[in-house]
Amino acid sequence: MIAADLLVAQNIGFAIIAAIMVIGALRVVTTSNVVHAALWLVVVLDGAAAQYVLLAAEFVAITQVLVYIGAVMVLFLFGTMLTRARIGVETDLNNKNWFMGVPVAVLLFATLAIALNDGFGDQRLPSDSPVVSTQQLSDQIFGPYLLPFWALSFVLLAAVIGAIVLSRRD
Amino acid sequence: MLAAATEMTETVLSSGWFLENAWIIPIIPAISFALIIFFGKRMPKKGSEFGVASMLGALVFSAGAAYQWIQRVNGAEEGAYIAPIVKTWTWWQNDGVSLGIGQHVDGLTVTILLVVAFISSLVQIYSLEYLRGDRRYTHFFASLTLFSAGMLNMVVAENMIQLILGWEIMGLCSFMLIGHWWEEGANSRAALKAFFTTRTGDIGLLTGTAVLYFAANERTTKTLGVSGFSIRGLSSWALSGDPSSAAITVGAVALFIAAIGKSGQFPLHTWLPDAMAGPTPVSSLLHSSTMVVAGVFLVARVYPVFFEGLNILGSGANFIVIIGGITIVIAALLAFVQTDIKKVLAYSTVSQLGYMMMGLGAGAWLPAVFHIFTHAFFKACLFLGAGSISHSSSHHSFEMKKDMGGLRKFMPITFTTWIISTLALCGVFPFSGFFSKDEIIDNVGYAGYNVFMIVGLAGAFLTAAYMTRATYLTFFGSPRGASAGEHHEEEGHGAHASHDDHAHDSHDTHGHDAHASHDDHASHGPHESGWLITAPLIILATLALSSGFLNAAPFGHSWENFKKWVEPSAEVINPTGIAYVTGGAGEARISSDEPTEPVVGEEAHSGAPLAAASGEEDHSKEEGHHKSDCGTKTPVDGVCVAPQLNHAPFKWSKAGLSMLIVFAGMLSSWILCVQLYERKNKKLVGLTERNKALGAGYKFLVNKYYLDALYENVIVRSIAHPIARGAYWINQNILDGIVNGAGTSAKTVAGWVYRNVDQKLVDGAVNGSGNAAQAAGGALQPVQSGKVNMYGALLFGSAAIGALILVIINT
Amino acid sequence: MLLNQFLILGAVLFCIGVYGVIARKNAVMVLMSIELILNSVNINLLAFSLRNGSVDGHTFALYVIAVAAAEVGVGLAMVLLMYRNRRSIGLDELSEMKG
After folding, report:
1. For this UniProt entry, which segments traverse the membrane (chain C) (predicted)?
2. B26-59 in b/e burial notation, b at 16+ Cβ within 10 A?
């Protein structure tokens, strides 16, 4: 049990990063500035990367930063730019029935929370597990999960072609 | 007794294809009937080709069957039992009752088959000319063919049900043919009268068949394996001593009532003269040679039933012989006062049928059947001759006094054939009637029925007399009326309404056209008919001359071929010997089992045969061969199918006496005719008006003994009218009331249902469901807003709810 | 560390993402909310992967990231198209499939 307590540092780190993430997420969905929303999303994604590190998933954390923040968010910003979103505050970023989202989200959360508590209430994560090495990861990808990897390549190919086709100007 | 004690003599009898397949004979005209009905109008000769061809085909088959039967008889020993060719095919079976259809071919069958097929063929050929241009030519031939099919079926019938089928078909066709020109009321009335009168007799047929079936069935299934409908079964049962006298007498009387109706015996003879309203070929086919002998055929066919049931040869008088005798006399008397030549012939037919019945009633089976055979030829010839006269000379009139006379100069062929047939009818040697009619009278006397023999002789006198009168009025004297070339105007024909074969209706173009063509004839005066008419006359006259020699008893035993071929042997036979033909068109095996000792059994008859009591001839010396006890004693083992009958030995003295009577009749009638019609002798003309007694007698005869008045006005009216009125009342008030009431209540209910159920309930439900659907649709419409956010909300919301439910269920 | 804390974090992010999908009008904002959801899934995957000591979760987290990238690419292309046709990317205007 002492070993468990030695994880106090991780717990505190987790708590802080979690708080930042939640606030950032809330800002994403409530802000009235598109660009701000994108930036808050970056905060969330960063926080997620930090959490991945806490979860001994370094490679995934790096990939998250590189791909998500580096590429996807840039994409988002480009999209915002190309669709002439107003710089600055917009008034009507919520649609007419935004209030329906609240009960849905609350209900969903309540359900999930109850279920999770019930299911995994007292399970601890192992404290002394080694960090997953890239070697291990690649062994898995190019081993048992080769097929999804290839399928994924097709998905990406399709996405690329699809995006180009869709946005062609003719 | 014979030395050959228990020896079984096996005789193999020859058979043949025609005998085996005689059941085809009625089918040929039946198929032809269907063809005429469906295709006749389109054929070049309007369907008559089918008719004539089918009758000739039937004739060929019948001749073949007759030939093979003769071979069969000739191939067997004298006096042996010749088994008939019997075949059955069961068409209905239930709970022990099985009905069959098939053939029963023996000598009687082939005789009548030949007669029917032959006369039908001749009449159809005759009709080709006689009815040319008639308005219903095709249907005439159809009915004629169907009639032949029906009668042929009756003749080959294996059981009573099949016989009844043929009987009824004949009755139907008779109705259709008598009423062929139904546009005139008299014709359709005559047809109805014929139908209803024979129908009255048919009650007897059905009753008799039923009674005999129930009485006989058990015994016949036990001994012979056939049902109580089978002809063989009934014959053997009747002679087996088994039947209770009540059952068999009732059956015999009932069946004889049917014969009375169909064969025109007193008192149901009234329809036959009226049936002359039909075309002449119909009269010559149906109402002289074939249909009317159906009753005689019935009696001859199941003769043992009558023999036992009415105690023929066992008592002084029986029902059949009495009726036959009465019929002979009353019909002959009525023939004297007729002015219509066909009616003379009709009454003559009734009288001759009376002879046949009297013969059967007195045990003279073979002479009666032979008389059927010969009578068919000369009577058909006489009728066809009358038709020939009307067709070519008297301008379609049949009135002797008005439109005929002196025709012998103009129609030599018709005259010659008429004379031949008349002589045959009167029974003059060597014409055929001598060999048949005189045999009847002879045998009646021989069997001990002396009174009836005298009646027969008196009938012969009267026959000669009225036929001479008819001949004189038609062929001698001076031509009168149409024969004199007088051209009757249209109105004039009104007098001949009942049998003129062209419509008086001026709208009938057919009648006019044919009339026009005949006008040419009439303007030429009387003349001989065409060859299509005279050829049948010549053929029939030749047969009237020669057919007697088939059974010429005067010339000795070897001349009696008809008897050899047709009369059933009265031997006692082993039941298993009544052959079903074994193996194809081959042979029939019978065992003829001769009894060893005198058969000791119960007396089947109540008294000794009448002939023995008369003490005349010694019967056992008669034919020189063994006489069986069938009919007098019950057979102990084996069955009898025919009773032992006696034959009077021919004596020239008896023949001479009857010939004298006939000549006396002819002479006295001739003298009277000459005096009355030619010389117009003052003493004779108008005699019936001056003399009260004679006048009353004449009036009585002219009104046909007031029988028609009795039947129509008294019996029919008293029964039918109240019933008709009652039925009408029931119909109007009860039946119509029910129908109307049903209608009114249906209407009311319908109105109520419409208002309440239909409008409110059903429409309400329908409209309500429509409204509900619309409302639901309207309510659900916002769900499909097309907005992604909304869809997203729905998606996640339902996922949340689903998850909640899952969680709740699993905890 | 409790397993639950990561899972609850994931649940919170998920629900916030759901709210964003429902409530936001701008198509790009909706896509961002979807990113939130995907990230919460990733956290879940990795947490369980650590608990079970296997690498499968990592693998799938990588795959999710890749798919998310592809999806954003296509989604933004569609948004672009939408903008080109209507000069606006408000999702509430996109209701031609309305029944």
Report:
1. 6-22, 29-48, 60-83
2. bbbbbebbebbbeebeeeeebbbbbbbbbbbbbb
Q: A12 and A83 share a domain?
A: yes
Q: Where are the domains of chain B?
A: 12-158, 318-487+526-565+652-682, 713-786
Are A101 and B787 inside 8 Å of each other by CB?
A: no
Work out how many domains chain A is built from and give that number.
Answer: 2
| Residue of A111, A114, A117, A120 best to disrupt the B interface, most CBs of B under 10 A | A111
Checking if the pLDDT of B607 tops 50, the result is no
Q: Higher-confidence residue: B596 or A118?
A: A118
Q: Is residue C15 part of a domain?
A: no
- Concatenated DSSP letters of B672-698: HHIIIIIS--TTTTTHHHH-HHHHHHH
The answer to whether position A68 is within a domain reads yes
Mark yes or no for CB contact C15/A112 under 8 Å: yes
Q: How many domains does chain C divide into?
A: 1
Tell which A residues from 84 to 123 touch B, by Cβ distance under 8 Å. 95, 97, 100-101, 104-105, 107-108, 111-112, 114-115, 118
Per-residue confidence (pLDDT) for residue C98, from 0 to 100: 74
Confirm if B243 and B308 have CB atoms less than 8 A apart. Answer: yes
Instruction: Name the residue type at position B306.
Output: F
- Interval A124-149: pLDDT, tens: 888 778 888 899 999 999 999 999 99
Domain that holds residue A168: 133-170
Range of the domain at C33: 25-88
- Quick one: tokens of C8? 């609850």
User: Is residue A116 in some structural domain?
Assistant: no
Which chain C residues are within 8 Å of B779, Cβ to Cβ?
none
Task: State the Cα–Cα distance between residues B61 and B67, nearest whole angstrom.
Answer: 10
A118/B811 CB distance under 8 A: yes
pLDDT band at B169 (very low <50, low <70, confident <90, very high): very high
ipTM of the complex as predicted: 0.91
The model's pTM is 0.63
pLDDT at C62 over 70: yes
